[in-house]
Amino acid sequence: MKLQDVVVTSNVLIGKDESDGGFKLAVKLDVSLPGIERAQAEDLARKAHEFCPYSKATRGNIEVELNVL
């Protein structure tokens, strides 16, 4: 398998934190893996999110939605 033309777009959102009345961040990652079956693309995106050092640093602190296009 050869990955080419991969695009990841991050959309950072700010919303109300119901737990303390303040604000919280969330991220929606739109992932495009052209030429890869959807199920395999979703698996690759999930694995990348688990491995990513930025994801590791923010895990449990920011809601993340992975959206494979």
From TrEMBL:
Record Gene3D superfamilies: 3.30.300.20
Listed transmembrane segments: none
SUPFAM superfamilies per UniProt: OsmC-like
Signal peptide residues on this chain, from the entry's feature table: none
Highest rank taxon of the organism: Bacteria
Matching InterPro entries: KH_dom-like_a/b, OHR, OsmC/Ohr_fam, OsmC/Ohrsf
BP term (GO), one: response to oxidative stress
Family assignment from sequence similarity: Belongs to the OsmC/Ohr family.
Record PANTHER family: ORGANIC HYDROPEROXIDE RESISTANCE PROTEIN-LIKE
Protein name: Peroxiredoxin, Ohr subfamily
Taxon lineage: Bacteria, Bacillati, Bacillota, Bacilli, Bacillales
